[in-house]
């Protein structure tokens, strides 16, 4: 494991993109990972398909798209946590995610057992 903050962030982004392609069938357009204290914050751009965007014009369907997409990610949570552990060596305590049906961006937040940023400083 390369211990620089930037290299860990880049490796997590790369691994999550590969996970999306393998597990979900398609990857995001861009991924940015940031280590902040005991959290890893990941922003994924270009998550929704054109068909999903068209459904998001209706509030009921919008909620269905969000729920479906979040369920897909949650079904692979063990693999996602393993990706973070592999690159950081620190256990994930909790995971939060949501998707914007306006921008097609997903945000993932991993709360770690230890402060990773201070270990890297």
TrEMBL record:
<dbReference type="Pfam" id="PF10057">
    <property type="entry name" value="MpsC"/>
</dbReference>
<dbReference type="InterPro" id="IPR018745">
    <property type="entry name" value="MpsC"/>
</dbReference>
<protein>
    <recommendedName>
        <fullName>Na+-translocating membrane potential-generating system MpsC domain-containing protein</fullName>
    </recommendedName>
</protein>
<feature type="domain" description="Na+-translocating membrane potential-generating system MpsC">
    <location>
        <begin position="5"/>
        <end position="113"/>
    </location>
</feature>
């Amino acid at each position: 494991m390369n211990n620089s903050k930037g290299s860990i962030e880049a490796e997590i982004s790369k691994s999550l993109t590969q996970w999306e392609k393998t597990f979900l069938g398609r990857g995001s357009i861009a991924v940015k990972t940031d280590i902040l204290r005991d959290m890893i914050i990941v922003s994924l751009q270009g998550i929704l398909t054109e068909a999903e965007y068209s459904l998001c014009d209706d509030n009921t369907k919008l909620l269905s798209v969000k729920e479906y997409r979040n369920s897909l990610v949650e079904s692979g949570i063990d693999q996602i946590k393993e990706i973070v552990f592999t690159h950081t060596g620190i256990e994930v305590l909790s995971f939060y995610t949501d998707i914007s049906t306006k921008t097609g961006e997903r945000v993932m937040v991993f709360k770690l057992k230890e402060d990773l940023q201070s270990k890297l400083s």
